[in-house]
Amino acid sequence: MCRHLAYVGPPVALGELLLRPAHSLERQAWQPRTQSSGVVNADGFGVGWYAQGDPVPARYRGTGPLWGDLSFADLGRVVRSGALLGAVRGATVPGADGEAAAAPFAADRWLFSHNGAVPGWPGSLTALAATLPAAELLALEARTDSAFVWALVLHRLRAGDAPDRALADTVREVAEAAPGARLNLLLTDGATIAATAWGNSLWYLTGPGRTVVASEPYDDDPRWTEVPDRTVLTASPGEVVLTPLKEPSP
Protein backbone atom coordinates (compact mmCIF):
# COMPACT_ATOMS: atom_id res chain seq x y z
CA MET A 1 0.00 0.00 0.00
CA CYS A 2 1.15 3.58 -0.64
CA ARG A 3 0.00 7.18 -0.59
CA HIS A 4 0.53 9.58 -3.46
CA LEU A 5 -0.29 13.10 -4.68
CA ALA A 6 -0.09 15.03 -7.96
CA TYR A 7 -0.37 18.78 -8.52
CA VAL A 8 -0.65 21.11 -11.52
CA GLY A 9 -0.96 24.87 -11.15
CA PRO A 10 1.09 27.96 -10.32
CA PRO A 11 4.66 27.24 -9.16
CA VAL A 12 4.84 26.25 -5.50
CA ALA A 13 7.61 24.99 -3.21
CA LEU A 14 7.58 21.19 -3.06
CA GLY A 15 7.40 21.29 0.71
CA GLU A 16 4.25 23.42 0.66
CA LEU A 17 2.36 20.39 -0.65
CA LEU A 18 4.37 17.41 0.59
CA LEU A 19 5.67 18.47 4.01
CA ARG A 20 3.94 21.53 5.44
CA PRO A 21 0.17 20.72 5.52
CA ALA A 22 -1.24 19.35 8.76
CA HIS A 23 -1.82 15.93 7.20
CA SER A 24 0.89 16.09 4.55
CA LEU A 25 2.28 13.18 2.58
CA GLU A 26 5.08 13.09 5.15
CA ARG A 27 2.54 12.45 7.94
CA GLN A 28 0.64 9.98 5.78
CA ALA A 29 3.84 7.94 5.71
CA TRP A 30 3.30 7.09 9.38
CA GLN A 31 -0.34 7.99 10.08
CA PRO A 32 -2.60 7.59 7.02
CA ARG A 33 -6.26 8.32 7.64
CA THR A 34 -8.05 6.46 4.84
CA GLN A 35 -5.65 3.62 4.08
CA SER A 36 -7.43 0.26 3.93
CA SER A 37 -4.36 -2.00 4.10
CA GLY A 38 -1.16 -1.59 6.10
CA VAL A 39 -0.39 0.97 8.77
CA VAL A 40 2.79 2.76 7.62
CA ASN A 41 4.42 3.75 4.33
CA ALA A 42 8.08 3.75 5.29
CA ASP A 43 9.62 1.58 2.55
CA GLY A 44 10.82 4.46 0.42
CA PHE A 45 9.50 7.67 -1.10
CA GLY A 46 9.95 9.84 -4.13
CA VAL A 47 9.00 13.09 -5.77
CA GLY A 48 9.18 14.09 -9.41
CA TRP A 49 8.78 17.64 -10.68
CA TYR A 50 9.05 19.75 -13.81
CA ALA A 51 11.36 22.73 -14.20
CA GLN A 52 10.12 25.63 -16.28
CA GLY A 53 10.86 25.11 -19.96
CA ASP A 54 11.94 21.46 -19.57
CA PRO A 55 9.37 18.75 -20.44
CA VAL A 56 11.45 15.95 -18.86
CA PRO A 57 10.89 15.70 -15.09
CA ALA A 58 13.54 15.43 -12.39
CA ARG A 59 13.22 12.95 -9.53
CA TYR A 60 14.46 12.61 -5.96
CA ARG A 61 13.92 9.18 -4.37
CA GLY A 62 15.03 7.45 -1.20
CA THR A 63 14.89 3.99 0.33
CA GLY A 64 13.88 5.11 3.82
CA PRO A 65 10.89 6.99 5.23
CA LEU A 66 10.16 10.50 4.03
CA TRP A 67 10.27 11.88 7.57
CA GLY A 68 13.90 10.80 7.97
CA ASP A 69 15.36 12.57 4.93
CA LEU A 70 16.55 16.00 6.02
CA SER A 71 18.14 16.65 2.63
CA PHE A 72 14.74 16.46 0.97
CA ALA A 73 13.28 18.74 3.65
CA ASP A 74 15.86 21.32 2.61
CA LEU A 75 15.17 20.85 -1.09
CA GLY A 76 11.45 21.03 -0.47
CA ARG A 77 11.89 24.48 1.06
CA VAL A 78 13.50 26.04 -2.03
CA VAL A 79 12.64 23.98 -5.13
CA ARG A 80 9.51 25.28 -6.83
CA SER A 81 7.45 23.74 -9.62
CA GLY A 82 4.11 24.10 -11.36
CA ALA A 83 3.68 20.32 -11.60
CA LEU A 84 4.78 17.46 -9.37
CA LEU A 85 4.02 13.91 -8.26
CA GLY A 86 5.02 12.63 -4.82
CA ALA A 87 4.61 9.20 -3.25
CA VAL A 88 5.42 7.29 -0.06
CA ARG A 89 5.73 3.51 -0.33
CA GLY A 90 4.44 0.67 1.78
CA ALA A 91 5.89 -2.52 0.29
CA THR A 92 3.38 -5.27 -0.45
CA VAL A 93 5.95 -8.08 -0.33
CA PRO A 94 9.63 -8.15 0.73
CA GLY A 95 12.15 -7.19 -1.94
CA ALA A 96 15.63 -5.86 -2.49
CA ASP A 97 14.96 -3.30 -5.22
CA GLY A 98 15.50 -0.32 -2.93
CA GLU A 99 15.26 3.11 -4.51
CA ALA A 100 14.27 1.62 -7.87
CA ALA A 101 10.99 0.41 -6.37
CA ALA A 102 10.00 3.86 -5.09
CA ALA A 103 7.54 5.89 -7.15
CA PRO A 104 7.31 8.01 -9.12
CA PHE A 105 8.42 5.91 -12.07
CA ALA A 106 9.42 7.99 -15.07
CA ALA A 107 9.86 7.75 -18.83
CA ASP A 108 9.82 10.38 -21.56
CA ARG A 109 7.73 13.26 -20.15
CA TRP A 110 5.69 11.07 -17.79
CA LEU A 111 5.60 10.48 -14.03
CA PHE A 112 3.60 7.54 -12.63
CA SER A 113 2.60 6.04 -9.29
CA HIS A 114 0.51 3.08 -8.13
CA ASN A 115 -1.38 3.02 -4.81
CA GLY A 116 -2.57 -0.54 -4.19
CA ALA A 117 -1.50 -4.14 -4.71
CA VAL A 118 -1.89 -7.02 -7.17
CA PRO A 119 -2.88 -10.34 -5.52
CA GLY A 120 -0.75 -13.31 -6.51
CA TRP A 121 2.06 -11.22 -7.94
CA PRO A 122 3.99 -12.17 -10.01
CA GLY A 123 2.26 -15.38 -11.05
CA SER A 124 -1.14 -13.76 -11.57
CA LEU A 125 0.22 -11.49 -14.31
CA THR A 126 2.34 -14.04 -16.19
CA ALA A 127 0.00 -13.99 -19.20
CA LEU A 128 0.12 -10.19 -19.34
CA ALA A 129 3.91 -10.25 -19.26
CA ALA A 130 3.83 -12.19 -22.51
CA THR A 131 2.05 -9.25 -24.18
CA LEU A 132 5.01 -6.91 -23.70
CA PRO A 133 8.14 -6.93 -25.88
CA ALA A 134 11.16 -8.50 -24.19
CA ALA A 135 13.04 -5.18 -24.30
CA GLU A 136 10.30 -3.50 -22.26
CA LEU A 137 10.33 -6.26 -19.65
CA LEU A 138 14.12 -6.04 -19.37
CA ALA A 139 13.80 -2.26 -18.89
CA LEU A 140 11.67 -2.58 -15.73
CA GLU A 141 13.10 -0.41 -12.96
CA ALA A 142 12.14 -2.88 -10.24
CA ARG A 143 10.70 -6.38 -9.81
CA THR A 144 7.44 -5.16 -8.27
CA ASP A 145 3.79 -5.17 -9.24
CA SER A 146 3.81 -1.36 -9.48
CA ALA A 147 6.77 -1.30 -11.88
CA PHE A 148 5.09 -3.91 -14.07
CA VAL A 149 1.77 -2.03 -14.11
CA TRP A 150 3.75 1.04 -15.16
CA ALA A 151 5.26 -0.93 -18.05
CA LEU A 152 1.75 -1.82 -19.25
CA VAL A 153 0.64 1.81 -19.06
CA LEU A 154 3.77 3.11 -20.78
CA HIS A 155 3.39 0.60 -23.60
CA ARG A 156 -0.07 2.02 -24.30
CA LEU A 157 1.08 5.64 -24.05
CA ARG A 158 3.88 5.06 -26.53
CA ALA A 159 1.39 3.37 -28.87
CA GLY A 160 -0.58 6.63 -28.92
CA ASP A 161 -3.30 6.05 -26.32
CA ALA A 162 -4.58 9.07 -24.40
CA PRO A 163 -3.59 9.03 -20.71
CA ASP A 164 -7.10 8.25 -19.41
CA ARG A 165 -7.55 5.38 -21.86
CA ALA A 166 -4.08 3.97 -21.10
CA LEU A 167 -4.90 3.89 -17.39
CA ALA A 168 -8.46 2.59 -17.80
CA ASP A 169 -7.52 -0.25 -20.15
CA THR A 170 -4.59 -1.26 -17.95
CA VAL A 171 -6.77 -1.33 -14.84
CA ARG A 172 -9.40 -3.52 -16.48
CA GLU A 173 -6.74 -5.86 -17.87
CA VAL A 174 -4.94 -6.29 -14.55
CA ALA A 175 -8.20 -6.57 -12.57
CA GLU A 176 -9.35 -9.35 -14.88
CA ALA A 177 -6.08 -11.25 -14.44
CA ALA A 178 -5.91 -10.65 -10.67
CA PRO A 179 -9.38 -10.27 -9.14
CA GLY A 180 -9.30 -8.16 -5.99
CA ALA A 181 -6.43 -6.01 -7.24
CA ARG A 182 -6.33 -2.47 -5.87
CA LEU A 183 -5.33 -0.16 -8.69
CA ASN A 184 -5.32 3.53 -7.93
CA LEU A 185 -3.00 4.80 -10.67
CA LEU A 186 -1.68 8.37 -10.93
CA LEU A 187 -0.06 9.85 -14.06
CA THR A 188 1.07 13.32 -15.11
CA ASP A 189 2.92 14.89 -18.02
CA GLY A 190 3.44 18.20 -16.23
CA ALA A 191 0.33 19.82 -17.74
CA THR A 192 -2.48 17.37 -16.94
CA ILE A 193 -3.23 14.60 -14.43
CA ALA A 194 -4.94 11.27 -15.04
CA ALA A 195 -5.86 8.86 -12.25
CA THR A 196 -8.01 5.87 -11.41
CA ALA A 197 -9.96 5.01 -8.28
CA TRP A 198 -10.13 1.22 -8.09
CA GLY A 199 -10.23 -0.30 -4.62
CA ASN A 200 -8.66 2.58 -2.66
CA SER A 201 -9.56 6.14 -1.76
CA LEU A 202 -8.89 9.02 -4.15
CA TRP A 203 -9.66 12.71 -3.65
CA TYR A 204 -9.21 15.96 -5.54
CA LEU A 205 -9.07 19.64 -4.67
CA THR A 206 -9.44 22.46 -7.19
CA GLY A 207 -8.81 26.16 -6.88
CA PRO A 208 -8.08 29.08 -9.21
CA GLY A 209 -5.82 27.60 -11.88
CA ARG A 210 -4.73 24.61 -9.79
CA THR A 211 -5.70 21.01 -9.09
CA VAL A 212 -4.44 18.46 -6.57
CA VAL A 213 -5.27 14.74 -6.82
CA ALA A 214 -4.32 12.59 -3.82
CA SER A 215 -4.91 9.32 -2.00
CA GLU A 216 -6.34 11.36 0.85
CA PRO A 217 -6.72 15.05 1.79
CA TYR A 218 -3.64 16.71 3.24
CA ASP A 219 -5.72 19.16 5.28
CA ASP A 220 -9.32 19.78 6.41
CA ASP A 221 -10.34 22.07 3.55
CA PRO A 222 -14.05 21.30 2.95
CA ARG A 223 -13.58 21.62 -0.81
CA TRP A 224 -11.84 18.23 -1.02
CA THR A 225 -14.05 15.87 -3.05
CA GLU A 226 -13.86 12.08 -2.95
CA VAL A 227 -13.75 10.26 -6.28
CA PRO A 228 -16.22 7.36 -6.55
CA ASP A 229 -14.72 3.90 -6.79
CA ARG A 230 -14.37 2.50 -10.33
CA THR A 231 -13.70 5.92 -11.86
CA VAL A 232 -11.08 7.42 -14.13
CA LEU A 233 -10.21 11.08 -13.48
CA THR A 234 -8.70 13.56 -15.89
CA ALA A 235 -7.63 16.98 -14.67
CA SER A 236 -5.99 20.19 -15.79
CA PRO A 237 -5.38 23.28 -13.65
CA GLY A 238 -8.74 24.14 -12.09
CA GLU A 239 -10.78 21.49 -13.93
CA VAL A 240 -11.64 17.84 -13.22
CA VAL A 241 -13.63 15.33 -15.29
CA LEU A 242 -14.81 11.99 -13.87
CA THR A 243 -15.78 8.99 -16.01
CA PRO A 244 -17.08 5.65 -14.68
CA LEU A 245 -14.91 2.57 -15.29
CA LYS A 246 -16.47 -0.67 -16.44
CA GLU A 247 -15.79 -3.88 -14.57
CA PRO A 248 -13.77 -6.47 -16.54
CA SER A 249 -15.72 -9.17 -18.30
CA PRO A 250 -16.40 -12.29 -16.20
Tell me roughly what share of residues is in helical segments: 10-25%
Oligomeric organization of the protein chains: single chain
What is the mean pLDDT? 93
Low-confidence spans: none
Beta-strand content bin = 25-35%
User: How do the strands of the widest beta sheet line up side by side?
Assistant: 3-2-4-1-10-9-11
Q: How many beta-strand segments?
A: 13
How would you characterize the largest beta sheet? 7 strands, antiparallel
Apparent shape: globular
Task: Please give the radius of gyration in angstroms.
Answer: 16 Å
- Helix and strand content put the structural class at alpha+beta
User: End-to-end distance, in Å?
Assistant: 26 Å
How is the CATH topology named?
Glutamine Phosphoribosylpyrophosphate, subunit 1, domain 1
Identify the CATH class.
Alpha Beta
CATH architecture field: 4-Layer Sandwich
Per CATH, the superfamily is: Aminohydrolase, N-terminal nucleophile (Ntn) domain
How many structural domains are formed by the residues?
1
- Which sequence of SSEs, written as H and E, runs from N to C? EHHEEHEEEHHHHEEEEEEE
Helical stretch tally: 7
In short:
The protein has helices at residues 14-18, 25-28, 70-78, 126-129, 134-138, 145-158, 163-177; strands at 2-13, 45-49, 58-62, 80-89, 105-107, 110-117, 182-188, 193-197, 203-207, 210-214, 225-226, 231-236, 239-244. With 250 residues, the protein is α+β, with helices and mostly antiparallel strands. It has a seven-stranded antiparallel beta sheet.
Can you describe what's shown?
Keywords: Glutamine amidotransferase, Hydrolase. Its EC number is 3.5.1.118. Catalyzes the hydrolysis of the gamma-glutamyl amide bond of hercynyl-gamma-L-glutamyl-L-cysteine sulfoxide to produce hercynylcysteine sulfoxide, a step in the biosynthesis pathway of ergothioneine. Residues 2-246 form the Glutamine amidotransferase type-2 domain. This is Gamma-glutamyl-hercynylcysteine sulfoxide hydrolase. There is one protein chain. This protein is of the alpha+beta class and 250 residues long. It has a single domain, classed as Aminohydrolase, N-terminal nucleophile (Ntn) domain (Glutamine Phosphoribosylpyrophosphate, subunit 1, domain 1, 4-Layer Sandwich). It is 22% helix and 32% strand. The protein contains seven helices and 13 strands. The protein has helices at residues 14-18, 25-28, 70-78, 126-129, 134-138, 145-158, 163-177, and strands at residues 2-13, 45-49, 58-62, 80-89, 105-107, 110-117, 182-188, 193-197, 203-207, 210-214, 225-226, 231-236, 239-244. The strands form two sheets. Strands 3-2-4-1-10-9-11 form a seven-stranded antiparallel sheet. A six-stranded antiparallel sheet has the order 5-6-7-8-12-13, with helices on one face. A hairpin with a 4-residue loop joins strand 7 and strand 8 (193-197). Helix 6 (145-158) crosses helix 7 (163-177). The two termini are 26 Å apart.
